[in-house]
Structure formats: C-alpha cells, structure tokens
Amino acid sequence: MPKGPPSGAEISSCASRTTPPPLLDVEALFPAIAPLRREAVRLHPRRGQPGPRDSSVGGAPAWPAAEAWPHCGDSHPRTRFAPVDDGVAQAMVPVLQLYARDVPELPFPEGTDVLQVLWCPFDHEAGYVPRPEIFWRDSARCEPLVEEPPRPVGARDDYLPDPCVLHPERVVEYPSWDLDDEVAEELEEAFEEMEDRAEEDGSPCAYWSHLSVAPGIKVGGYPSWTQDPYWPTCPGPCGQRMRHLVTIKSAEFDGASWRRWVPVEDRSGAGEDGWSVFALPYEERNALQCAPGIMLGDMGGMYLFVCAHGCPDMPFRYHSDCS
Predict the structure, then answer these.
(1) pLDDT tens per residue, range 36-73
(2) How far apart are CA 31 and CA 230, in angstroms?
(3) What is the DSSP letter of 209?
(4) Which among 13, 17, 11 has a CA at the least distance from the CA of 169?
(5) Coil, helix or strand for 283?
(6) CA 259, CA 241: separation in Å to the nearest integer?
(7) Rounded CA separation 101/65 (Å)
(8) Residue 271 neighbours by CB under 8 Å, 6+ apart
(9) What proportions of the chain, in percent to the nearest 5, are helix, strand and coil?
(10) Is it the case that residue 262 has pLDDT exceeding 90?
(11) Residue 257 and residue 224: Cα distance in Å, rounded?
(12) If pLDDT is split at 50, 70 and 90, which confidence band does 309 have?
C-alpha cells in the first residue's frame, strides 16, 4: 500500500525524461558490439496519482467488470515475507499497467492494447520473491474499479509498489552480462584503456556502467541482470529461447551508473562542478532512485519473458536475481 503521500520532490512536474547521450561513440570504438545494439523503453517511474486509464507502476488498473480480482492460493516459504495465515488465498497487487499508445513496442496479441502485471506480494520458492502474473487486455472491455482492489493481509512494503506515473523514453542499449565471453575478453584491454583515458579527462566512463544496459524498470532491450544471465526456454511447441518483455528493478541507478542514467530533467544543479546525485537530500534522491519503493532481495530485479515464436497463448516465464 502507499507509504504516505508523495512529497514535492517525489511528484513529477516534467512531461518527459531524457537520458543524457553517451560520452563516447560505442559503435565507433568497439565495432564488434555494433550488431548487438537493441532499443529499450525506459519507463522512468515517479511518485504521482495515475488513473486507471494511465500507464503506471503501482496504480489501480482498469479491470473487466465481470472478472474477479485474482488471488494467490500458493503455499509460501516461511520467511519474513510470508503471510500471517498461509491457509488463506491472498489478493494479488497491481505492479505495472502499460497501454499500447505509450509503449507500442510491446508484443500485444491481436485484439489487446493493455499489458497488466500483478504479483502475489509474498515470497515464493522460485527465487524467494513475489510471483507475477501477466494479463493482455482490450481496454474497451475494462472499466475503472468501483472499489480499491482488495489488499493482501500482512504484506510488507518492499513488495507493494507505490503509485507512480511513467515517462517512457527510447534508448539504445548494448549487452553487458549478455556479451559473449570471447568478445568480452577480446575487448577487455580496450575497455580498460577507454576508462583510463576518461578518468584522466575528468569524465569517468565505463562500458559496463555507462555504455551498455540501461538500469531500472524498462521494456525490451537487454535484461539488466544482477547476476549471470538466465534466458528461459519456451514451454510451448517451439521450445526456443523466450523474448525479454519487462525488467522490474529495485533501483533506477547505483553508485556508478547514475553518471549516465539519471535523466537531464532530474539533474538539479548539474551545471555545477562536482555535482552528484548522492549529494541530494535523501528524500529527493530516493524519489529518483527508488520511486515505487520496492526492494527485491538485495537491490535485485525481476525479468519477465514471453514466447516470440507464435506458440498458443504466448507462454510466460519469469526469473529473479539479486546482489
């Protein structure tokens, strides 16, 4: 549930968010990486008051009037993120709602124009994180909820996203953990030389933190893995590697990556020498770094995948990791 009203620092007054361009031309410096470029959609969640007809993180979704709200009847491991009474089905909570008008890159099945992600906000054996479910909807068949969705009993704030408005932005990515080992070894010396030159020029720049994969909550591109990659295989007839759909991360940046990935609009005083996002007051920085207020493991993430090869009902899988 929301952890109190958003402060002035948490409410977005900007209509968009813009990731600064990379300090260096990745494809000119490392031609071997050029064919691996992908486009991702950074969602840039910021605390706010999204409506049911808005794309959002943690907002109340539009919902089919005749469809009951989903509950989780799983047994849960006995962790500090376990329900008080594991014999009672627990209400799932809205995590993400994306309309095709905002993120047309999603692989919407025919007749749908909304993706909704809900999860059970208690640990599950698979990864000891919430268990998500996805729904592809036709918005014409969904209505604003007459009442707030039911709330799970005893869920901790770490698994209950605060309502956030979104600012979708397209960015180019290159692989980080997904970079082939042989290519990474061939480029290791070039990466180090680039970092040394950038450090000497007073503009720190590292391939892994600043030039490869965008952190945070996003659609498409490469998963921003915290550990070794894990690409699930479709359980359907095709049996092929699944497509990365969405990454849900605990934070939008860390102590290194902020230099590239904090949006221009959020760099208050960025023209001053030595500006750092970590010099901001805690509440202001937290509103940028962890706006939805979720924490998956130790600053970890969840990655959602779907079949991209035409299997019936577009099979879905997820994976999680942490630091």
Answers:
(1) 999 999 999 999 999 999 999 999 999 999 999 999 99
(2) 26
(3) I
(4) 17
(5) helix
(6) 33
(7) 22
(8) none
(9) 20, 20, 60
(10) yes
(11) 12
(12) very high
